[in-house]
Amino acid sequence: MLDYDEEAGLYDASRGGEPRAAAAAEAVLDLLPDGTRRLLDVGCGTGIVTRRLAAAGEGPRVTGVDLAAAMVRQAAVRLPGA
Known about the structure:
Blueprint: H1 4-14, H2 17-31, E1 38-42, H3 48-54, E2 61-65, H4 69-78
Parallel strand pairs: 1-2
Helix pairs in contact: 1-4, 2-3
């Protein structure tokens, strides 16, 4: 089984990086009903997609959670102050 704490530093590059994150965020945002105010990103990993969701203009307030502490640390760097 994959140890996400060990993989955190290389995870984004091994999963398609920014192009994949852009496509994933766009797909999620397209599914949200108009007026969605909150979004929970369960398994947010390094926050690469979470950051794009949170930056979606007048989009919802996004909260990301993940079980792997190393992933959450990466997400915290990517989303300072969040």
